[in-house]
Design a protein that fits this description.
Blueprint lengths: L5 H24 L2 H8 L3 H8 L2 H27 L5 H9 L7 H12 L8 H22 L5 H20 L7 H20 L2
Helix pairs in contact: 1-2, 1-4, 1-6, 4-6, 4-7, 5-9, 7-8, 8-9
């Protein structure tokens, strides 16, 4: 297997710095000066490796969606073929599960910027659909007689609960909040099983 090129390594380093800046300051606040400082490079290097501002934004969208997809695939792998709703919720809300909170914070920042960058909508929606699809598979396995609409509604509730907790990471929320949100997700899952 060949080693990644210096260009690939440097691009990855700059994209990771961009991710950090967007998570901290939002898409508009992630200036080239901040990105360069975070990456430890001079500003002209950004253009050399990632192109102009629009190309940089496109690369960031791909980077964030890829990171979210990696986490989603890891969740899917951990739950196949017999994962239960309890397994799913334990994985989502387990603090020891590796999770980069910058990804969800940057994802949310990109979502708030879709009005100015409509090209971001499709990849963001598609990645969230994949995440919801994994939740739906687990819920259908536990409640095979539940309607597709009900499974989707409960999936949305569990996903929203998880995303809400992840978005609170910068606050260092009390452990009780994590437990309460986890319990809310468990109640949603149990309501699906109870009504089948």
């Amino acid at each position: 297997m060949s080693r990644p090129s210096l260009k690939d390594q440097r691009s990855e380093q700059i994209l990771d710095a961009y991710l950090t800046c967007v998570a901290r300051f939002g898409l508009e606040g992630a200036t080239q000066e901040r990105i360069a400082a975070e990456a430890g490079v001079k500003r002209p290097i950004l253009r050399h490796y990632l192109g102009n501002k629009d190309q940089m934004t496109g690369a960031l969208i791909g980077y964030v969606v890829d990171r979210f997809a990696e986490a989603t695939h890891a969740l899917q792998d951990a739950l196949e073929p017999t994962g239960t709703p309890t397994d799913l919720i334990d994985l989502l809300f387990d603090k020891s599960t590796p999770n980069d909170p910058r990804v969800m914070l940057a994802y949310q920042s990109l979502v708030t910027s879709v009005a100015d960058h409509p090209e971001m909508r499709h990849p963001l929606v598609e990645s969230l659909e994949h995440f919801l699809g994994i939740i739906e598979v687990v819920l259908r396995r536990a409640a095979p007689n539940a309607s597709a609409t009900r499974v989707r509604v409960v999936s949305q509730g569990i996903a929203a609960t998880y995303v809400n907790l992840d978005s609170l990471t910068p606050l260092s929320p009390p452990d009780a909040w994590c437990q309460e949100l986890k319990q809310a997700a468990m109640i949603l899952a149990a309501s699906l099983e109870a009504n089948t």
